[in-house]
Structure formats: structure tokens, C-alpha cells
Amino acid sequence: MLFRSSVDLFKEGFEEENYLVSPLSVSIALLMTANGADGETLYQMVDTLGLDIDDANKYISSYMKAIENKDINIANSIWINDADIREDFIDKNTKHYKAEINRDVFDDKTADKINNWVKENTNEMIESIVDEVSPESIMYLINAIAFESEWDEEYDDHQIFNDNFTNYKGNRKVVEMMKSEEGKYLDDGKATGFIKPYKDKEFSFVAILPNEDVDIKEYIENMTGDSLHDLISLYEEVDVNAYIPKFSYDYGLDMNDILINLGMEDAFDRNKADFSKM
After folding, report:
1. Rounded to an integer, what distance in angstroms lies between the CA atom of residue 215 and that of residue 223?
2. Bridge partners, 193 (sequence order)
3. pLDDT, average across residues 44-66
4. pLDDT band at 4, cuts 50/70/90?
5. Which residue from 23, 58, 132, 188 puts its CA 20 to 30 A from 237's CA?
6. In angstroms, rounded to a whole number, what is the distance separating the alpha carbons of residues 153 and 148?
7. What is the number of other CB atoms lying within 10 angstroms of the CB of residue 159?
8. Of 267, 272, 277, which is closest to residue 47 (Cα–Cα)?
């Protein structure tokens, strides 16, 4: 993804709890915003993302075309309060990100309008993205990504059963487990894992588990983009008996502090932010 390393984004937000983040979604939302930035604000944003803004716009545009009509849907929109916005900013985001432009006076119904748009564009997988919209806000830039696919080899009933699951704190709990035989094994000496493809093998699920004598926090602290890439790309084609707990996910996170810590300070400083190209 566009971040200097998507791993950096993961590491900065990881705490002792379940954590879910989409580097692609974060990148797209920030790049749409960066098209309206200038000066030090723009420099910090593209430096954090690791790519020149013009190159990034072209990259995302090409990527969105490449995955069109596949199992992943990317939808972007810009919601503008009663304000004058530069046409160049609008043009770049409609051209490269296919952003839908909505101009309206923000009121107590705007949040519902945004959430209904998100719900519709994610096949109801994401029901809401904002709790409320302030009438004083100027603009909302929204990215919604929905991935919906079947496994290339689905689990049969006999492969789903109750068993003990032990979390990284050593606590055990009886949960529904899923067992399968996979063909791509991962091992970097400190962790093992497997790759399980989705239908048509366009996308894959990757599971990584640190070894019993390796602390998960220490493993994540030492992880880099290169090390993760090497682990996944240098898989071994051997039979793997894979067990994973049946799971669902729902996660919300304020990323301001994470992005500030990664170097994007001015964008969140009312006195320093330069969005004059917006």
C-alpha cells in the first residue's frame, strides 16, 4: 500500500486488544484530502504516505480500475457544506478517485445521508460511519471499502467444531473452530502461518501466529514492511493443517494521534494546517 510501510500504521495503533485497520482505505481518504493541501502540510502528508501526490493519484486510479468488477468495492464521496471549493480540487478527486460530489447545507439530516450512502455502497456491510455532522463543518471526505467473497475451498460442516482457543494472554475459551488443509506455509523462524485463497484466487487471507516463546508485542515491534513482504512471498508449498477460530469484526478508531505520531502533524493543527488548494 501507499504508506512507507503499512506495517507502520499497524504498529502505531496496536494495543493489547483486537485491532483492525485498512491501509488502503486510510491512504485513499488522506490522498483525496492531500489534493487540497499545500506547503508543509502537503509535504508531511506525502512523506508519511511515501509517494508524490501526482504519482499517488495515478497509482490509486490504476488500482481502482484493475480491481473493478472484482470482490472488492471502493467508493469515495465528498460532502460539501455551503462553501466555495476550488474546482481543481474537485476535478482531481472525481478523475482519480471517482468521488461522488454532494453539495448541501449541513443540518441534522446530513449524518443520515452520509451513512445511507455508505450503507448502499458497501452492500450494507458498513451501516454507519459518522455519528453526527456539525453545521459548522465545511467538508467530509468519505472512503468506504467493502470486501465480499467466498473461500476458494469452503468449510464443510464437519470442519467446524467447538474447541479450546487460547489467546495471547494464556486465557482459554471454548469457541467454534474451523479446520482446513492449506497448501502455502509461512515460517520466518519467529512465527508461522498460512495463506488461504478466496474464490478465483484474486485475493487471499493470511494468518500469522508468533511462536510460543515469542511475545506478540515484541514480534510486532520488530516487524517491518520488508520482513512481512518476505514472509508472505517466500511461502513453502507444503500441506498445512490450519485451525482458526470462527470470527467476525467490527471496529472503530480515531486515527488522529496515530497519523500525528507518524509525522502528519500540521494537518491536525488548526493554526498550521494549509489546505489552501481546497
Report:
1. 12
2. 186, 208
3. 91
4. low
5. 23
6. 15
7. 14
8. 267
User: In residues, how long is the chain?
Assistant: 278
Average pLDDT over residues 44-59: 91
| Half-sphere CA count of 191, side-chain side, radius 13 A | 20
Cα distance between residue 58 and residue 62, in whole Å: 6
C-alpha cell at 154: 469452503
How does pLDDT run across 73-86, given as a tens digit for each residue?
Answer: 899 999 999 889 99
Q: For the CA atoms of 175, 176, 179, 184, what is the dihedral angle to 10 degrees?
A: -70
Q: Is 201 exposed, middle or buried (0-12, 13-18, 19+ CB in 10 A)?
A: exposed
Residue 125: Cβ-neighbour burial (10 angstroms; 0-12, 13-18, 19+): middle
Closest C-alpha to 159, from 191, 137, 141, 182: 182
Residue type, 23: P
The three-class DSSP label of residue 216 is helix
* Strand locations in the chain (E): 72-80, 100-103, 139-147, 160-166, 172-182, 185-187, 191-197, 204-210, 240-245
- Rounded CA-CA distance 138/275 in Å is 12
Q: pLDDT tens digits, residue range 156-178?
A: 999 999 999 988 778 899 999 99
Is-contact 126 119, C-beta < 8 A?
Answer: yes
How do 72-80 and 100-103 pair as beta strands? Answer: parallel
Residues 6+ apart with CB under 8 A from 73: 121, 122, 123, 145, 146, 147, 148
Grouping H, G, I as helix, E, B as strand and the rest as coil, residue 94 is: helix
